[in-house]
Write a structure and sequence with these properties.
heterodimer, A: mainly alpha, 2 domains, B: mainly alpha, two-stranded antiparallel sheet, globular
Chain lengths: 130, 73
């Protein structure tokens, strides 16, 4: 990852924290979503700090990392779409009655985390092969 | 996929880090190429062959069965 990417991700973390803080201050009804955003922001900034401090070699992007990045995100989108379908069916079947704000925050988190997990899996495997 | 990259690298006294630097990829990519767990693009294969002063044919080979599986998927 380049310095520019680190800076961008740091600002993204700051954005999450600011959004979370604003929600907590001005929309107490969404305090749960605010807390989640605050935590996500803190984790992003912490992870960037760790990677910056302990990286051993230049974190460049090459054809393998780009391919894995794109395919990891594709799988993550697909999995999230499937989860949304299941949640939709459960909601119209009145099995669950989720809070929309919490549901959206959960889906955002799920998308990000599952994307990263797929990428880590493919990085360890070496390629996106079957 | 099988590769003779390690053999050619040793012959030319090139380290994994040097090779990665010269073809513009991460060292881990070279590690996975040598383990046969990553199939390179034609461009990368050609660049590596050029650095190791050989041909793509000499460096990489596929089992027939493996190639058939990849074709059908």
């Amino acid at each position: 990852m380049t310095e520019r990417n680190y800076t961008l991700k740091n600002w993204m973390g700051v954005g999450f924290i600011v959004a979370g803080a604003l929600l907590l201050l001005f929309a107490p009804a969404y305090s749960m979503v605010g807390s989640i955003l605050l935590n996500v922001g803190a984790v992003v900034i912490f992870m960037i700090f760790i990677r910056r401090r302990w990286r051993k070699e230049p974190d460049i992007q090459d054809e393998r990392t780009k391919k894995i990045g794109a395919v990891g995100l594709s799988w993550s989108w697909l999995l999230t779409l499937m989860l949304m379908c299941v949640l939709y069916l459960l909601t119209i079947g009145q099995v669950i009655d989720p809070d929309p704000g919490l549901l959206l925050a959960g889906l955002m988190l799920f998308l990000g985390v599952s994307g990263r997990l797929f990428q880590v899996y493919f990085y360890r495997k070496g390629d996106i092969g079957y | 996929m099988q590769t003779r990259m390690k053999e050619f690298r040793a012959r030319h006294g090139v380290t994994q880090a040097d090779l990665a630097d010269r073809v513009g990829v991460r060292r881990e990519t070279i590690v996975h190429l040598e383990k046969g767990t990553y199939t390179p693009s034609l461009r990368l294969a050609w660049q590596i062959a050029r650095v190791l002063e050989t041909t793509v044919d000499e460096l990489f080979s596929f089992d027939d069965e493996e190639a058939e599986n990849e074709d059908s998927s």
